[in-house]
Amino acid sequence: MENKVRDNKQEARFELALEGGQAAYVQYEEAGEGVLALTHTEVPAEFEGKGIGGALVKGALEIVRGEGLKIVPACQFVSAYLRRHPEYQELVD
């Protein structure tokens, strides 16, 4: 399956385009050489509970993995996702 999440470096966030021109995103900031702190996950209210957040975080983590980066899960949603998906634990700095 194609990863629909993109890294919007100008806005420092991973984005997933949604219907109606909206987007869900995971905000990040640099936390050291090759490390991103994932600080906030935002999904528009009308898309909550539909798996968008999980797909967004998975896509973001796949980008992080592909670029050889590490993360600091500073967002509760990302932390919860990592607890449910141990296959991404090696990305945690």
Blueprint (SSEs and pairs):
Blueprint: E1 5-8, E2 13-17, E3 23-30, E4 35-42, H1 52-66, E5 70-73, H2 76-84
Parallel strand pairs: 4-5
Antiparallel strand pairs: 1-2, 2-3, 3-4
How does this model look, in words?
Strand 1 (5-8) and strand 2 (13-17) form a beta hairpin. It is built from 2 helices and 5 strands, in the order E-E-E-E-H-E-H. The protein has a single domain, classed as Aminopeptidase. It is of the alpha+beta class. It has helices at residues 52-66, 76-84; strands spanning 5-8, 13-17, 23-30, 35-42, 70-73.
Tags for this entry?
93 residues; 5-stranded mixed beta sheet; 26% helix; globular
Quick take:
This protein is an alpha+beta fold.
Computed structural class = alpha+beta
The residue fraction in helices comes out at 25-40%
- The largest beta-sheet arranges its strands as 1-2-3-4-5
Mean pLDDT, as a whole number?
95
- Based on DSSP secondary structure assignment, what is the total number of beta strands? 5
Return the CATH topology: Aminopeptidase
Q: Provide the CATH top-level class.
A: Alpha Beta
